[in-house]
Amino acid sequence: MRKSVLAIDVGGTNIKLGLVSPSGHILSRTNLPTTSFIRRKENLIGAVVSASRRIIAENRLNNKDVLGIGIGLPGLVDARHGTVEVLTNIPGWKNVPLKKIIESRLKIPAFVDNDANVVTLGEWRFGAGHGFKNMICITLGTGVGGGLVIDNTLYRGEGFSAGEIGHIPLNETGLKCNCGGYGCLETYIGNQRLLKRARIVFKDNDISLEEISRLASRKNRIALRFWKEVAVHLGNGLAGVVNLLNPRCIVIGGGISNAHQYLFKTIRETLLQRALRTPAGMVKIVKAKLGSDAGLIGAQVLVHDALL
Amino acid sequence: MRKSVLAIDVGGTNIKLGLVSPSGHILSRTNLPTTSFIRRKENLIGAVVSASRRIIAENRLNNKDVLGIGIGLPGLVDARHGTVEVLTNIPGWKNVPLKKIIESRLKIPAFVDNDANVVTLGEWRFGAGHGFKNMICITLGTGVGGGLVIDNTLYRGEGFSAGEIGHIPLNETGLKCNCGGYGCLETYIGNQRLLKRARIVFKDNDISLEEISRLASRKNRIALRFWKEVAVHLGNGLAGVVNLLNPRCIVIGGGISNAHQYLFKTIRETLLQRALRTPAGMVKIVKAKLGSDAGLIGAQVLVHDALL
After folding, report:
1. B233 contacts in A (CB within 8 Å)?
2. Among A144, B21, B162, B278, which is least packed by CB within 10 angstroms?
3. For residue A103, what is the enclosing H or E element?
4. What is the ipTM of this complex?
5. What distance lies between CA A305 and its chain's CA centroid?
6. pLDDT tens for residues A32-43?
């Protein structure tokens, strides 16, 4: 019997844990609320370790039945040494040797990586990017994250920060971004910015992005135009990525990708209009397949590719 | 004795041929004027074959003393099959199996690639990018070309068009570019655009870019501001590249890189201001070392890496 992976997906709201089979199926899962442990990293690590022991025991496994532990975290992660350098919205994490800590507590090989990279691994092996040698994955949310598969390998960059598609500038004199830059893609299509714009466009302080998708599905013209503008900005940003990297496939996931029928057509048109003919003509723009399970399923790939 | 490579660098004006040693030294060289053969591709190929035979004979070598032939061309080149798909300023080239043609005429293994890729290989192995695992090379000229070394391999992209740094958009509503896109880096810092701008700024229809560098070296304020604007645009474009790829080194070559004392400082400052802290802090911005020999020296690397 081939061994399963214990997958851990640390997010700003929830920590998901799951047992993932070699074929990418989630056999068992549990959740922890991140905010309960956000004050002290020792508490968060302790809670993850306890939950891991529980999920292993509940599935009547021993530690040696688990191939490894894969952990995705929202921040800068040195995947080679297994060190969390900094987390984006969880304070107190600086150069934490998480791989070492988890291995010493659970006696199972552990691997850590940035969450967008883990999602990319999942979509590449088991999702919408399956079979592509050169593929890019984007997650649309509060932040706009990304990961790059280049020549059949996840490319992490010299300092493990590659793939920051959300911080490609769209305009030289654009708005100041949280990252310190100006006019980044995220300042145009990050959820915060979209909600702000939605409140103005719809003259409604309580409108949600889901509601705008519902309105669009009923052919509401303002909603359709709202999503079209998002898609044009995204297409403009991707034109640079496509010209630079000439990928075969771009997988788009995250919350607003669910407005896909209003997004994908315009993204494709924008690329054909604006990117170079060769790379624009060959790139597939597809919706992510794994949804919110991508982080767990990708953790299986992280461990699998490190060990086998 | 280790064998030399017969290197051929096809440009819009000249075709350079050289015998390049395993250590990257040009042992012998000759030039052909491209324009004499521009009408018919058979004539260009014939001239290259004759000149190759001549250079081999003049150096008292036999075909089997030559490791291989490396050819760089300005256009889209399928480096795997050795096919020239299209050339940028030389008409009549469409899906030309140049590798096969050269091999059948000269009985020496031949390898072809895009010229910017060949320059990148040269700077990476023997020039300013030596020793870097993740490195980007940019050539500034009429066009703004580029090549990417990722995880110690030249990355060509799914359709051999990767590295088009000149066609990263700087502004969504920028000028229409020759490539069909809008606001591409090339529309801001390509030589044509720079000359046009120079004529306005200096109110002089005959001013050259070299003259503006001379003026800058004498602290002429208009000239200094002219180069500073160029550097800010280049830095803004590179901010996206640095955030996306997190390279260790960016090598900048081509004509206007000779204005370097006025360019490089501002490029570095712009990156530190605008790109993410981790990748901006670790990337070196350096001037290319090989000058106009990069195409010949890179052809040695192209052959070497394909055969050895």
Report:
1. 172
2. B21
3. helix A98-106
4. 0.96
5. 18
6. 998 888 788 999
